[in-house]
Amino acid sequence: LHQSKLDFFCKLGYAKLDICKVLENLGQEALEDDVLKELIRMGSKPQALESQAQPSPLKLVARGSCSTSPGLKWLGEDESDSPDHLRPIVIDGSNVAMSHGNKEVFSCWGIQLAVDWFRERGHTYIKVFVPLWRKEPPRQDSPIADQHILEELEKQSILVYTPSRKVKGKRVVCYDDRYIVKVAYEKDGVIVSNDHYRDLQNENPEWKWFIEQRLLMYSFVSNRFMPPDDPLGRHGPTLSNFLSKKPVLPEPKWQPCPYGKKCTYGNKCKFYHPERPHQAQLSVADELRAKTKGPLGLGKEEERRNRSP
């Protein structure tokens, strides 16, 4: 009896010495509730609670390491929502700014709206490419609105200027689209643009596949950046799966058939039939034929036997 009680309270995490003291004071016949009350009165705590009460020492983790403490998962952290599982974002700054400015003004506020949208989702790698000549003072033929936003995004290491220079008064601009596609391809990320980059698709077959599969188009609705919920069409992935390295497959949701037992579609019916243990079944007409076929067949065999001498 003494050993069984000792084992019981040891499993609860109490110290063996404290348990022995209480059993000596109360006697071997003491009830478990009384022993527990005495242990609590003495101030004895289970080892599991003591370890939780004491703050665990901070562990230094090397930069770039993916190791995480097991406690995070216990707290309910979803791996799919962590920044490591979200794809890098490469934004075509000129396309976004001109789209927000109704193709008349280079609106830097549109770039900020797009960056904020991805930031709120948890993306940590966001790069915006804009030609260097957009730093110059605005002219009548190329108006720019909220130009100070470009400086702020550059300080945050989000905005990258593609090279451009003047030769004999003429501006020589490097092709910024190539930068956008190249960086997104190397980072295995997503291109944010309404441009299809057809010239670059023809230039490189690998880029062609990448542009087709990783181009995220968008719209601006009342200063609101809105990408589609189905970036690759109705039968493609959802937006959250499109932006994630590890897509989450939806659980099958069985919708009951509105016709119930009267349904005549059989195995072609896409709805759920609780009365059918195996969903794939014959149609009702075929099922009736199969049922009537058996007894009719047996009757014919008996007739033949009776007629034969």
TrEMBL record:
Q: Which CDD domains match?
A: PIN_Zc3h12-like (cd18729)
Statement: the UniProt record of this protein carries the keyword Transmembrane = no
Q: Where are the zinc fingers (C3H1-type)?
A: 251-276
Signal sequence region:
none
Recite the UniProt keywords alphabetically: Endonuclease, Hydrolase, Magnesium, Metal-binding, Nuclease, Zinc, Zinc-finger
Show the coiled coil region(s): none
For the region Disordered, give the residue spans. Answer: 279-309
Regions of biased composition (Basic and acidic residues) lie at 299-309
Is Transport found in the keyword set?
no
Kindly list the cofactors needed. Answer: Mg(2+)
Which family is this protein grouped under? Belongs to the ZC3H12 family.
The protein's name in its UniProt record: Putative ribonuclease ZC3H12D
